[in-house]
Amino acid sequence: MAIKNGDGNKNANFTNRSIYSKRNLWSGFLFGIGLAAFIDETIFHQLLRWHHFYDKSTTDIGLISDGLFHAFSWFATIGGLFILADLRRRNAFWMTRWWGGLLLGAGGFQLYDGIIQHKIMRIHQIRYVENVIVYDLIWNLLAVLMLIIGISLIIRTSRRKQPGKAVSHEQ
Amino acid sequence: MIHFTAWTVSQLLLTLPFILAFIMYITAAVLSSRRYKPWPLYRTICWTFGVLFAVITVVGPLANLAHTNFIAHMLGHLLLGMLAPLLMVLAAPMTLAMRTLDISLARRLSRILRTRLSRLLTHPIVASFLNLGGLWLLYTTDLYTLMHENILLHLIVHLHIFVAGYLFTVSMVYIDPIAHRMSFLYRSIVLIVFLAGHGVLAKFIYAHPPTGVPLEQAKVGSILMYYGGDIIDIVLIFILCLHWFKATRPRIELTMR
Q: Contact at 8 Å (CB) between A43 and A35?
């Protein structure tokens, strides 16, 4: 592939990032899933202790879903960052598109966690209080917000695939 | 008293292979360093700590406590089945053996490593199945109770935990030469499924303690298994990704020269 590697050459980065547009999206997406899961684990499980390790009402499929997502999120965090390093060494990192992917991954994971895992599979609740619905609403609205911003960033960066066009690279 | 002696013999039997492995490794490292360039020190350190973690699991205070305490048993499982194998794989014992043995013996070893049986045992799915399957069997049937009553069973289970852990690690990260290399994506997917199975089993133990294990011990042991497994598997994931990162480095600059 035609990778231009001129030092400090912004045009080379414009060309390369178009070639690796998809990879930028994947890197952000994977890291986004990992980041959301990491925040869920450190803040809500360990620091606040709102989330419980195990809830008796957990369904079998909930246990499996939790296990798979937990495992996948570790892999996604590390893998996503390695892909980011790969983009950097190819001078093909595209910040805006990467953030689009990140918000898509983080929002998607949080919405899945908030609707499917918490409510349907009942692996645990956000917090064990009476008005948990307030927590659920805020949780899922934040997820939708991240999804909307993420998708709009992705759409915006998809339109400018033509390399060499005089466009500003920061949004 | 007889009971005590029998358990002591069993502990010694489990320790012996590790002590032998340690002596052989150090001898090989010293001998081959005289003939070729020095064997990397960090590999010897990895082997030393790997053997150390395995030994403290099978003999001494932790091993004794593990008979009655599930938390100690689980710590032992993490050390013997995950951490010790990882460190010992990183020590590249087969590479060391190859450069220490004379050519005919090295060739024979290489032939053994390429046999169908060894290919089968180091296949990611087979190794994962041996590893995880053994654990599911141990914690969801009466095997856990039986193991503490029958010395032979105790020996077999502990050997299995180590060997399965070692084969699993070998099948995931290629430090030593391996006959059949699977793609990074293939190994990644199997590793994720394995890690998920490990986590699911940990949470299952939380809700359904093995027979004879007090609920409180089961809960702490389960959390230890869940997060302890994470920490060790993060290292595995990191090494796997690092190898992928190195293997896919751009080669443009070379071709331009």
A: no
pTM here is 0.87
B250 closest CB neighbour out of A3, A71, A72 = A3
What is the tens place of the pLDDT at every residue in B96-109?
999 999 899 999 99
Nearest to B129 by CA among B74, B183, B84, B190: B190
Spell B141-165 as b/e; 16+ CB within 10 A means b: eebbeebeeebeebbebbebbbbbb
CB A79 to CB B188 under 8 A? yes
Q: What is the ipTM of this complex?
A: 0.84
DSSP for residue B212: T
Chain A residues within 8 A of B204 when measuring between CB atoms? 63
Q: For residues B47 and B91, is the Cβ–Cβ distance under 8 A?
A: yes
CB-CB: which of B222, B237, B248 is closest to A74?
B237
Report whether pLDDT(B170) > 70: yes
Domain spans of chain A, in order of start: 13-159
Which residues of chain B does A58 touch, with a Cβ-Cβ cutoff of 8 Å?
A: 203, 207
